TrEMBL record:
GO molecular function: structural constituent of ribosome
InterPro entries listed in its UniProt record: PCI_dom, Ribosomal_eS6, Ribosomal_eS6_arc, Ribosomal_eS6_CS, Rpn6_C_helix, Rpn6_N, WH_DNA-bd_sf
Annotated TM spans: none
Family: Belongs to the eukaryotic ribosomal protein eS6 family. Belongs to the proteasome subunit S9 family.
Organism (species): Mycena chlorophos (Agaric fungus)
PCI domain: residues covered: 222-412
Biological process, per Gene Ontology: translation
Record's protein name: PCI-domain-containing protein
Low complexity bias (residue ranges): 11-22
SMART domains: PAM, PINT, Ribosomal_S6e
Amino acid sequence: MASSNADLLEQAASPQTSPQQSEKIYQEVLSRPTPPNITPEAHAQILREQETALLKLGTLYRDQQNAEGLARVITLSRAFFMSSTAKAKTAKLIRTLLNFFNAIPDSMPTQIRVLDDNIAWAKTEKQIFLKHSLETRLAGIHLDLPHYRPALNIVKSLLTELMSKRLDDKLILTEVHLVGSKIYRGSDNLTKAKAALPLARTSAALIFLHAEEKDYKTAYSYFFEAFELQASAASFAPAPGKREGADGALPAVTGDAPIDTDGKGALESLKYMLLCKVMLNLPEDVHSLLSIKLALKYAQLRDVESMRAIARAHQDRNLADFEKALRDYKDELSSDPTIRSHLAALYDTLLEQNLLRIVEPYSVVELEYVSETVGQGRQAVETKLSQMILDKVLHGVLDQGRGCLLVYDATEADTTYTSAIETVQQVGKVVESLLPLTKRDLSSLFLKTFPVVALPSLRSGLFRYEPIMKFNIANPATGQQKLIDVDDERKYRFVYDKKISQEVPADSLGPEFAGYVFRITGGNDKQGFPMKQGVLLPQRVRLLLSDGHSCYRIRRTGERKRKSVRGCIVGPDIAVLSVVLVKQGDADIAGLTDNVLPKRLGPKRATKIKRMFNLGKEDDVRKYVVRREVTPKKEGKKPYTKAPKIQRLVTPTRLQRRRHLKSLVRRRTERQKEQKTEYDALIAKRVAEKKAKVAAIKAAHHKPAATA
C-alpha cells in the first residue's frame, strides 16, 4: 500500500499529468483506508504520504485560485489527522493550509468563514494555542477590510484570556498588542494606540534576543527551529509566476507568520546558524551542519560558501585566509550589519591569537617583524599590542625607542598571604570555640567573689548577651522582608570590616542560612545615626551636607548643614544592618523565600503614568492605572481587581481645595491691608489730636503773659 501511494504521488507530480487528474489522484490517496495489522513503521509511512497528498492538494487549489476547494481541504485535514496524528502536528498542518489563502485574491469572506469554523473546532478540542493564533489572524483580516468593531472585540477577548490565565505565549501577546494598536489608530483613538505600543515592547523584550548580547547558544536554537519551518514550507512553493502577492493577491495578514515560499528566509536562518557555530568556536561543526537533508539545496550558494570560508579560516587560525574571504565575499558578508559587526569582533580575536602565536617564543621581538609576519601595518600592530597589554592578555612592555616588544613570563601568584589568612581564620575558630567555656568560668568566679549581687534577678541576667545586632533582610525576588535578632556575636562577626554594597556569605547565622549570600545596603548604629556610602570609616563623622546627599533632607532651597553620619564600614556599634538577598541557599526561610508577594505592575505617581501612556491634560489618569487580579480567600467569591492609590493625582476636588486656599490667602492679605489702613488712620488721628492738645496748651500759656 505504501509503495502504491508513493507511485500515485509521483504520477500526480509529473508534468504530463493535468491538474484535474492530479486532483483525483490526491483524493484517491486520501480516501484509501489504512490496512489492518500493519507495523508502526508502515503506518507512519502511510500517514506521511497522506499528509503530502493533503498539502499537494491544497497547493493545487491555491494555484487554481479555488478558495472553496482549499476550505474543504482544511476541513478534511481536521477530520482525517485528528484521530491518528499528534495535536501539534495537526495544528501546524492547519496553519500551513490557511496560509495558502494569501495567494488567492478576493478570498476574504471564505477566510473569515473558515477561521470561525476552525476557531470553534480548536475551542472544542482544547487547542488553546491554535485558537489564539487563529483569532489573531482573524483580527488582522477584519483590520484589513476594515471592520474595526469585530476586530476590537476579538483583541479584547484575546487580551483578557492571555492575561488572566497567565499563558506563556509572549509571541502571540506581542502580535495582539500590535494589532490592537493598529485598530485603535484606524479608529482615531491615538491615546490607546500609543498605550498599546509599550506593552508590545515589554512582551517582545522577553522573546527577542539582542545581537550584541552574544548569547549564541540560545540564538542557534532559535535559528535552527526557524530554518526547519521555513525550509519545509519552501518545498511547497507554487509554480513560477503564481507566488504569494502575484496577480493582486493579498499579503500575509497580521497574526501568523508568512510562509517563506522562495527560500530566502531559510537561507538567512542557515547563515545565522553557521555564524553562531563560528562564534561558539565550533567551526568544525559547519561541515556536518551543511550535510543535513534540508541544508543540501543551499550548500552551493555563495552566501553559504562565504560562511564556509570564514569557518575554515577560523579553524586554521589563518588571518590571511580570513581577510581573503572578506574580500572575495564582500557583498554577501558586508550587506548584513549583524554579520558584519560579529565578523569584526571575530577578526579582532583572530588578530590577537596570531599576535600571541608570533611573540610567545621570544623575550624581545621587533615590531617590524611582527607587522610583516601578521601582514598588518605597524601602527595597527602597536595599537593592538597596547590594548592586549592593558587587558592583561599579554605580559610585556612596548619600547618605542628601540621599536621592540619586551615579553615577560606570567608571574605566579604568591600563596603565602592566602595561607597566612587561612591560618588566622582557623585560629579564630579555635578561639571562638573556647569562648563559651571562658564566659562560664568568669561567671562562676564573679558570683563567688561578689555574693551580694548573686540575687535571682541579677543572677539570671549576669553574663547574658542581649540581642546586639538586628538583620533587616529583603528579598527582591519575592517582595518579602524579615527582621531577625542575633544575640551571639560569633554569628554576626562575619560582617565586621565589610562595606556597604559588599557581598558576604550568611552561613554563620545558622544552618537554615547555609548557602545564602547577602549584600549590605545600609544600617544604623546604636544611637540611630545612619550609615553613609562613601565614608570609609568605622565610626561617626560630621559632614557638611547639601541637597542631593543621602542622610539629609533640606528644609529650604540652597540650605547646607553639618550632620553626624556613621561610616559605611560595619563594626560592633551597628544596631540594625540592612541586607539584600543575592543568592538563595538550599532551604527556604519562612517569611522570606516561601511566598511570592504580588508585584506592582505599573507606576503609582500620576506624572509617571502620563509619561508611560503618553497622556495629555484631557485624559483621565485613573483609567490607565495597571490593575492586578486578586483571588479571594473565601470559596465561592468572584475574583476582583485592585489598583494602587495614585500619588499626586490632580482631581477636581484638589483643584477646588487649591483655589480655596488661594482665596483664603488673598482674603487674609486684603484683611491685613485694611487693618493696616485703619491703623495708619488711627495713628494719624492720634498724632493730630496730640498736636492740637500741645498747641492748645501753648496758646493757654502765652495768653496770661500777654494780659499781664
